[in-house]
Amino acid sequence: MAEPVTAAGDTGEPADRIAAAVTGCPDVAGLARGPLATYLAGRTVPGVAVRDDAIEVAVVARYGRPLAEIAEQVRAAVAPLAGGRPVDVRVDDISMPGDGGTAADRAVRTGEG
Hints:
Elements: E1 4-5, H1 14-23, E2 28-32, E3 37-40, E4 43-46, E5 48-50, E6 55-62, H2 67-78, E7 87-95, H3 103-110
Parallel strand pairs: 6-7
Antiparallel strand pairs: 1-2, 2-6, 3-4, 5-6
């Protein structure tokens, strides 16, 4: 299972603001780790790629809703930050209930993070 990450604090970087909007979606367990990322000085924002012509987002979805609905939820959250660019959403993994969940799910349940 791809391990999701939560958004870093808002540094004013578009990728950080997009990551925060995505992780605020109720059906998103977190951003997916993987090759899709924004590379900044000394760090990366995994799961978000800000390009001149599009925004790409890779997420770990929570089980229960159709993936197309979750993707639309993410697009709606990111649209105000996209500057008119299309928002492409990729679901890299699904967080299943009862399996202990992802780190993001545990943080939500325990109030940590």
